[in-house]
Amino acid sequence: MLVHGWNSHPGVWNRLVPRLDAASRPSWHFDHSRMADHGLSGRAEALATFIGERREETGYDGPIDLICHSFGTCIAREYLEVVDGSARRERVGRLIGLGPPNNGSALAELFSDSDRGPAIIERMTGVFVPEGFDPFTDPIVQDVRPGALPMQRLRGAGLRPDLVYRVVVTGNPGAGREFFPWLDGRTWEQRDGGDPQTTLEGDGCVAHSESALPGVPLDLLVPEPDGPIPSLQFCHIYLPRNPRVIDRVMGHLERTDP
Predict the structure, then answer these.
(1) What is the pTM of this model?
(2) Cβ pair 90, 22 in contact under 8 A
(3) What is the per-residue pLDDT across 181-231, written as a single tens digit (0 to 9) for each?
(4) Phi and psi for 31 in degrees, rounded to 5?
(5) 206 vs 135: CA distance, rounded Å
(6) Alpha-carbon distance 98 to 170, whole Å?
(7) All structural domains of the chain
(8) d(Cα 25, Cα 50) in Å, to the nearest integer?
(9) What is the pLDDT of residues 232-244, one digit of tens each?
(10) Closest CA to 235 of 69, 79, 86
């Protein structure tokens, strides 16, 4: 199961899918790109319906692995941990999140800041946000603010013991601006409700502290100096297409131990 992120589409998986096909791993693509008016709970309900329909169509009733980019991880977790959390009717295997804002997004909080938001939005327009972007009319941006009720609900639900979690993140320890030039190679983060600050421990859009889950080690990948993959390809936007990220995802899928 592949779940894309906010303001994205299933096409981001076009480099991973051939690897899955080659490994004889069929994939289902959950497309929520046309659900602009739906928040986290609405998209989680749609994911539940989608999985049910695919199971009925294919006759497959075994455990499913979910590979999710960014906010797509929150959609999957809302369904698996909140909606299905106590019943555990859905049979699951692994949940692999790529740069997920599991604890909320400082960037979403800053987008909604009347003083700093407009300047940040202007810098990221056409890159991470669309033209004419209004954070207050976007239910996902509001739902992923660190103090928002959906984020509190996820933190309170707890992780499922029948689900293996993997969190793949990238960082910019070399402080190269080209890693994410729109924010000078850095990432905004907000710790413990404090004032947002920038860090090199993030992918340009999501900080490591925002991706962290209790008891789940972060699987960190960083650009290699003079390596074959440009530094920019390690930022949040390109995670689903980064060859090293794809290798790591395939490695997690191939492991038989938890």
Answers:
(1) 0.96
(2) no
(3) 999 999 999 887 778 899 999 999 999 999 999 999 999 999 998 899 999
(4) -105, 110
(5) 17
(6) 9
(7) 2-254 (3.40.50.1820)
(8) 18
(9) 999 999 999 999 9
(10) 69
